[in-house]
Amino acid sequence: MSSLPKCPQCSSEFTYEDGDNFVCPECAHEWPKAAPVEEAKVVRDANGNVLQDGDSVTVIKDLKVKGSSSVVKVGTKVKNIRLVDGDHDIDCKIDGFGAMQLKSEFVKKA
Questions:
Q1: What global pTM score does this model have?
Q2: Which family is annotated (predicted)?
C-alpha cells in the first residue's frame, strides 16, 4: 500500500513524488509536499507596539461612528480588546457606544 496521498483534484491513487512536489499522472496536477506554513498575523498600534487579546488601548483620533452622528473622542480608553481578522482588526466595547470594531492604526497601547 502506498503512503502517498491521493490527488486532490481527481482522487487518483497513482500519485508519485517529483522533487518537492507530488504529481498525478492521470490529470497532471502538481502540488507541494509540505503544507504551506501559515504565519500568525501581528497587529501593531499607531506607535508600532504589538497588541494582544485583553490589552487596553487609547484612541488617538476623533472617530466618527458610522450610521450615527456621535464621535468617539481622542483619549477614550478601551479595555479588554479582542483581535480579529479583517480591515478593522480590533473588536471591543466602548462605554456609551457599545460593541465596535476599530482599526489598530487609530489606537495606542495604554
A1: 0.64
A2: Belongs to the YjdM family.
